[in-house]
What does this fold into?
Amino acid sequence: MRRLLTAVLAAVLPIAAAIALIAVAQPASAATLTRVTDFGSNPSNLNMYTYVPDRVAARPALLVAIHYCTGSASAVFNGYAHDYVTAADQYGYVIVFPEATRSGQCFDVSSPQALTRGGGSDPVGILSMVNYAKQRYNVDASRVFVTGFSSGAMMTNVLAAEYPDVFAAGSAFMGVPAGCFATTDGSSWNSQCANGQLIKTAQQWGDQARQMNGGRSGPYPRMQLWHGTADDTLRYPNFGEEIKQWTNLHGLSQTPSATDQPQSGWTRTRYGGTGTQPPVEGISVQGAGHSLPQNGMVPYAIAFLGLNSTGSGTSTPTTTTPTTTTTTTPPPTTITTPPPGGCAAAYAKTAEWNVGFNGQVTVSGSNNWVLTVTFHAPQKVIGSWNYTGTWDSTGYVLTARPNGSGNVIGFTVEHGGNLTAPTVTCAAG
It folds into this structure.
């Protein structure tokens, strides 16, 4: 937990400053943030707060809005979630704000209890809040949604994976795949996941989520994922891993159905549909750090979730003109038989999303090798693992030597629209 607090405080100080700048007064009405006690099973002693607008729809939707580490219900109510609150006044839905009370105010997305349906810890307490609100406010059970920021985004993924029969859709700002932060030693911090080094196939991520919910059949929630390319707390490769997981859970290809730029610096990819509410949507923000959402983002989440409706079928659509692009998968570099005493290498792309891809190179032959991977402009390496070596300041050339982790190295690349396979050479070192 000490490591978690150190990392989170470094990231959250600028977030807190941003919130101080964007925080606004509560809506001018009698409705306010209200503490609820005795709401049901609560094994980890969470606090529950609600926002119920003055005019509630006859069958309102329910939004669960989950704060970041070191945050609180009131901080997210007055800061990041303010647009959700304003929309609740307009459309008459109810918001539940869970609040972590443990040291550091992070949500448990690591323990075996938290990563098992009905296993205990925070997810069980949050589900109790949902059930309480559904009964008290006559909530439309088909319109229960979840959103979160950082730690709350990780919990958004966990809840949607564990309780796909409860949540209709989620929107996660700066999260990681469900189960990525799992630990078994009592720690709540998983450095490999946080650093974007936990790379799995789409099937593996999907299977992990299915295991978390006991292998339940049926549809999964629609999922919207947001991430900044310069996030140095929960690094950007996690964005691609989230997309792998949710496209697999929906039985979709990782090739986008549509790609557009709704705002300058944003790249949005949609999977399994091209409208406002596709099964999976990813939005990456060029140059943004661990500081989402920024101005103008939450209304896109409101439209994706379907909160811009009273439930009668009327809604306010988001007007965009998507620019659809077709993505292609570059062929792998063919591996050759290594010469005596030498080595050979094979490249394969393991994932692709709107602005980047993950790849790996497998080396065979010599156990003492030097590998050179040259990328094609404007491609740029932004992360790599399982080797000793460097990549140059341009991000175009990666030089690698074995480091005892095996003969497979991996990397994440911003492709800039160029999906050409890198050039791979290997020599005995």
Q: What stands out?
A: The CA atoms of residues 98 and 145 lie 14 Å apart.
